[in-house]
Amino acid sequence: LPGYGDSPPTGMVATQQGRVAFLEHVLEELGMQRPVLISPSMSGRFALPFLLARGDRLAGFVPIAPVGTRDYTAGQYQQVQTPTLILYGDRDTGLGHQALQSLLHLPRHHVIVLPDAGHACYLDKPGDFHRALLGFLGQLQ
């Protein structure tokens, strides 16, 4: 993502609208019609504003203890109709639980807590993570 890792910072993603436009551009360039957006940790700064503004473009949403959940109100989350699988590790006692409190306001959500997994639950328990993800994907239309 722009501004993370070794990528140079860019002014385009300095605002929520810019991050929405960035993700929209990526989806268009890849020719993706209704993807499932998977959002671990820092990518929440991009995924959450996209979900709230353009959730109708998504077939599903999978937040994994994303940052930025407190930036939005319960009412904003309640407007989203995108099927959502909330995933986090039970050892992620900080961000996982914090994000969950906000994400529970999404009306079409399901929660899976991976046992003995931390913040990067997909790395700690890849088999359990993939089973949960594939089960969710199999339920989408």
Automatic annotation (TrEMBL):
Species annotation: Anseranas semipalmata (Magpie goose)
Localization per record: Cytoplasm
Keyword Protein biosynthesis: no
InterPro entries found in the cross-reference section: AB_hydrolase_fold
The entry's keywords: Cytoplasm
Gene transcribed to yield this protein: Abhd14a
Subcellular location, principal: cytoplasm
Gene3D superfamilies (alphabetical): alpha/beta hydrolase (3.40.50.1820)
GO cellular component terms, A-Z: cytoplasm
Protein's name in the database: ABHEA protein
